[in-house]
Amino acid sequence: MIKLKQKIIKFAKNLNTTNLSPLRSGNLSIRYNLKNKAEGFLITPSGKKYDDISIKDIVFVSLKGEYDKKGLEPSSEWRFHQEIYKSQNNCNAIVHAHSINAVALSSHRINIPAFNYMVAVAGGFDIKCAEYETFGTRKLSKNILKALKGRRACLIANHGQIAYGASLDEAFELAEELENICKQYLIARQLGKPKILSLKQMEKVLIKFKNYKK
Ligand SMILES: [Zn+2]
Description:
single chain; binds zinc ion; L-fuculose-1-phosphate Aldolase; alpha+beta; 6 helices
């Protein structure tokens, strides 16, 4: 468990240095089962600057939503982590970031269309934007699950972005990729409406991506 906690801390600090989520915004987690077989995940704590977190601050939350009330509180956004782990068997780690370009684009509450073939990195023809709800609520978790259907990443309206993967490295890379895509799309929109790839063109990309990953 200590190794996984160290990994979370390393990547939490990376959130700062890569500008994915400055200071204490955003959060990340890794799927983890306790020795007594209780299923759950390890997550960054609530309201602590990433520069200041240590191993004792990482919180275990069970898939039933239980955690030790004596220690630090898990991130106030732990509920959508719980729901994603419960619904996606292939998810072992989640990165949630308030990265600048994702936040800017999410305020327009639009899905990112296939303006570039790299949109397929999230797993589909487009990248969805989850409908707005207050942070940390079950309602928001529901909206996020809907936007993640068939995808490994999505925007969250007026909030930010989420990416998940088979490992924290993978989830983090996808979050960085999504931040780039948001920046590119924002720039492309400055010249008007970009040309969008057809479903057929994106199908070819998705097949290539699938084979490439093997
Ligand atoms: Zn957030």
